Structure formats: C-alpha cells, structure tokens
Amino acid sequence: MPGHSKTWFITGCSSGFGELLVRKLRASGNNVIATGRNAEAKLAHLQDTGASILDLDVAAPPSVVKATIDKAWALYPGGIDVIVNNAAYLLTGYIEELTPQDIEAVLKTNFFGPFNITQAVLPKLRVKGEGTLLYMSSQAGWHGDATAGGYCTSKFALEGMVECLSRELAVIAPAIKVLLVEPGYFRTRVFNNINIVPPRHPDYAASNAQMRILAAGIAGNEPGDPALAVDRIIELVTGTGMVAGRTVPLRVPLGSDGLDKMKTKCEETLKICEEWEDVAISTDIKPM
C-alpha cells in the first residue's frame, strides 16, 4: 500500500538532500539507515532523529561496500526497501587542467560508489522480490558545461549504467523499481564545498579565475528549494502526493533550471536527427 512505512538506506547524509531525507523520513515513521564518511563525527547531528547510522565511504573497495550493505540489511526485519545513492563529489576544472587522479576521484564516488552498492544489494532485493533503487543524478547527466567535464563524465556514466540496469530488471525482476532523479541547482550548500582544481596551465589563468567567481556567485542563489525536492523524491518512491496515480518514468527532472536544460538538449538532438537524417541513412547497406 502506498505510503506505508519502509526501510531506507541513504548515502551522503552529512548535509543537503541526504540530511533532509533522513529527517523527513524519520518524522513520518520510516526506518532510516543514514550513512556517510567519518559518520561518528559528520552524522552526529542526526543522532536525535533515531536513524541508524553507519560509516560508509562509497569510494571504498567493493568488499567494504558489501560488508556495510550486509550489516545494514540485518538491522531491520525484511531488510532494506529503498536504496538512495545520494553521495556526490563535485569537481570543477577545464579538461586540459584535470589529471587522471582528478577523474578517478570523481568516478570513485559518483559512478563506482553506486555501481558497487547496486551489485552488493541487488541479489538481496531479487530474493526479496521488490524494492527501489534510486540514483541521484543531475542535469549534468544530460548536457556538458565548460569546466564541468569531470562531474559530467561521472554523471553520464551513471546514467548509462542505470538505464541498462532498468532494462535488465524489467525482464528479470520487474517489481524492483529503478529511478534516476535529475536535480538542477538547489540551495543545499553544495556550491560552498565544490572542489575546484588549482590553476595548472597559464593559457587558462584568466578563465580559471572567472570560473571561481562564477562558482562563488551560484552559492546561495540557486533557484531550487531542497525541502520541496525531498518531498517530491519521497512521493516518487511511495506513489503519493503529486505522483499518486501516475506512472513514474526512469528519469524525473527536479527544478525549472534543470528542466529547461533537459528540454533544450532534447530539442537540439531532435533537430540534428531531422537535419542529418539523409547522411545517417546513406550509410545503410543497399538492397540488391
């Protein structure tokens, strides 16, 4: 029945969407397993919610991730109902200034973290017969922006993996729901903690300085209300509120800014397909 109490496992709960999800879900009587790096210190402010708190760096090796999932699964009868892959690493820098280590760091959190969590929990969900795998993606999973190459790379990879997963589970385990949430800019203080690569190339010095000014200007001026976004996320999972009676697609945008960028990308792509259709089909093998 929609709205009944569930057990939620959430990554990246120190602030932002993760923290708000923990508080709202606990206030409505759900079981919550809140996770984060250095949890004893960074999640101490969530102790009063009654959530179970576990230490988890999603960039840890698969064996560590699996051990945490196993521990979390045993905390409540029936295991876990909803997995929210929320932990994120924001990286800004021009492609030529990024190092392989920079890209590896962002992929470890934004792609391999959800990938390893999925592989650890999916066998349990298949035995259970139902559940929800929710992935916090981004408008950055739809379009590329200058200086966002590291972050966009990780989100594009995540989107590809999750789309394939959704098609697989539609055949193998259709009662397991898969959902990608695509937020635009929300006032979660995430831009206060963005990782900006140091200037490494003299040709980018002026642009790099301007990028830092622009990033600082976003903080506190984001158009999205994170509390309302969290309401919608919970409704997407539970089928309540604005989602009641609707079929939820794989991807759902949140925020007018992200929606506009997704629409623009779709329109641009459709225009390319229409204008270049003759070139595309010219390469087909001609019938004898």
Written overview of the protein:
This is NAD(P)-binding protein. Helix content is 46%, strand content 14%. It has one domain: NAD(P)-binding Rossmann-like Domain (Rossmann fold), CATH 3.40.50. The chain contains 9 helices and 9 strands. Helix 5 (149-172) links the parallel strand 6 (131-136) and strand 7. Helix 3 (62-73) runs parallel beside helix 4. The model has no long low-confidence stretch (mean pLDDT 93). The protein has helices at 16-27, 39-42, 62-73, 100-128, 149-172, 205-218, 226-238, 256-275, 277-281, and strands at residues 7-10, 31-36, 52-55, 82-85, 91-92, 131-136, 176-183, 195-196, 251-254. The protein is of the alpha/beta class. The protein is globular and about 55 Å long. It has a 7-stranded parallel sheet with strand order 3-2-1-4-6-7-9, sandwiched between helices. The termini are far apart.
Which secondary-structure class do the elements indicate? alpha/beta
How much of the sequence lies in strands comes to 5-15%
Our Rg estimate from Cα atoms comes to: 20 Å
The counted number of beta strands is 9
H/E topology pattern: EHEHEHEEHEHEEHHEHH
Give me the number of helical elements.
Answer: 9
Largest sheet: 7 strands, parallel
CATH superfamily: NAD(P)-binding Rossmann-like Domain
- The CATH architecture: 3-Layer(aba) Sandwich
Mean residue pLDDT: 93
Shape: globular
N→C terminal distance: 58 Å
CATH class descriptor: Alpha Beta
Spans with pLDDT under 50 lasting ≥5 residues?
Answer: none
